[in-house]
Structures are given as C-alpha cells and as structure tokens.
Amino acid sequence: MTKKERALTSVQRLKERYPDAICSLTYREPLQLLIATRLSAQCTDARVNLVTPALFERFPTLDAFADADPEEVGEYIRSCGLYKTKARDIVAMANKLRDDYGGVVPDTVEELTKLPGVGRKTANLVCGDIYGKPAVVTDTHCIRISNRIGLCDNIKDPYKVEVQLRKLLPPEESNDFCHRLVLFGRDICSARAPRCADCPLQDCCGSFKKNGAL
Ligand code: SF4
C-alpha cells in the first residue's frame, strides 16, 4: 500500500468511525479559539474548557483583553500551567490584533503566526475551524499516529509532518481528519496502550504490519 492509499483509507475509515469531527475546545468567536488554543499548550482541552468560561466572562471583548493586566489574566488560567507566559502572550496578542489587524483575527497561517504565542498548530486550527481553509493541525496525536500508520517515516518535527500530510491528504478533508486523529488517539491509538486488536486501521497500518500489536 502506498502512503497515498494509506492516507485515503485512513481518512475514509475515521470518517465512518467519528462522523462528528469538531474541535474539543469550547469557544464562541475567533478570538476565543485563539486564546483557548494558546492555553492548551501542555494542558488538556478539558482543563482549558474548565477555565475559559470565567476568563471570557471577565474579559468579554478584544479591548478587555488588550487592556488587561497580565497578572489578573494569569489568575484565571493558573491551572493550565505556564500561566505567566500564557497570560503575557494573550494580552500582547490582543494588543497586536487591535493595533495591526483592526481587531480582526487574520485568516492565513503566515499572518496568524506573527501574533505573540501563536505557532503553526494554532494558526492551522483557526484557518480550518474559523475560515474553512485546508488545514493540518499537527498536535501530539497527529504526529504519533501519522508515524505509526506510515504516513510519515519517523518524523517528529511538527512542521515536517504538516508538509508531508499536505502532500497526502485531500485538502477538503485535512482539517476534519486531524480532529478525528485526536478522537482516535484518545479512543484507540493512544500513546501508551494502543488497542490494535480493535483498530479500524489495522490492515493499513504500517506499524502493525511490521511489528504486530504494539
Ligand atoms: Fe494504532 Fe495499532 Fe491501529 Fe496501528 S493498528 S493505528 S498502532 S491502534
């Protein structure tokens, strides 16, 4: 099976298994997704979803975040870890959005990554989920599973994985596929104990073919 065939089979099988491919972060507008994604670095989405309701109530607008004291923002997000850096980034990001982008969240990876604290993962998520553009979100699940299936050859660098997946995935499927990889990673192909015996991708998984069940 070629990489392309593996990719197309995986896209189809995961679509059947997880028809609802949605982001697990809770948000109501683009700015909130940007902030929630920044908070999700080295933190679970579930934890982020616990802190954002109070955060977004206290700072309901872009101006509120731009004018906020990072220390106060930090108090709301302390349990997400790295809270001082994240709070500083969020306030700086809001200021740049207000000053340089007229308060509108940009719609390209290139512009989004100019915002403080925004990397390609966050930028792709926003492009895909807010603007409906072909996006490849290379989080830990995506990187692990892409290598196991054999879409990548032992590539750990997120940007290189993104480039590789963009060559293999149909553009209109790539964003949803990455959301499904998160569900699949939690459900079946986990980091520590993948359930290969129950896996819908067993017959197209390079790792399973080579090594048997992990
Ligand atoms: Fe992951 Fe095992 Fe399925 Fe391969 S067969 S994708 S390693 S769970």
Which descriptors apply to this entry?
about 210 residues; mainly alpha; about 60% helix; elongated; binds iron/sulfur cluster
Give a structural overview:
This protein has 214 residues and is mainly alpha-helical. It has twelve helices and no strands. The chain has helices at residues 3-17, 30-39, 45-58, 62-66, 70-77, 83-100, 109-112, 120-129, 140-149, 158-168, 171-187, 206-211. The model has no long low-confidence stretch (mean pLDDT 95). Iron/sulfur cluster is lined by residues 148-149, 188-189, 194-196, 199, 201-202, 205, 207-208, 214. Residues 148-149, 188-189, 194-196, 199, 201-202, 205, 207-208, 214 line the site of iron/sulfur cluster.
In short:
This protein is an all-alpha fold. It contains twelve helices and no strands. Helix 2 crosses helix 3, helix 2 (30-39) packs antiparallel against helix 6 (83-100) and helix 2 runs antiparallel to helix 8 (120-129).
**Intertermini distance:** 20 Å
Give the low-pLDDT segments: none
Q: Kindly provide the radius of gyration, computed on alpha-carbon positions and rounded to a whole number of angstroms.
A: 18 Å
Helix content: 55-70%
In terms of structural class, how would the helical and strand content be classed?
mainly alpha
Give the SSE map.
Blueprint: H1 3-17, H2 30-39, H3 45-58, H4 62-66, H5 70-77, H6 83-100, H7 109-112, H8 120-129, H9 140-149, H10 158-168, H11 171-187, H12 206-211
Helix pairs in contact: 2-3, 2-6, 2-8, 5-6
The structure holds iron/sulfur cluster (SF4).
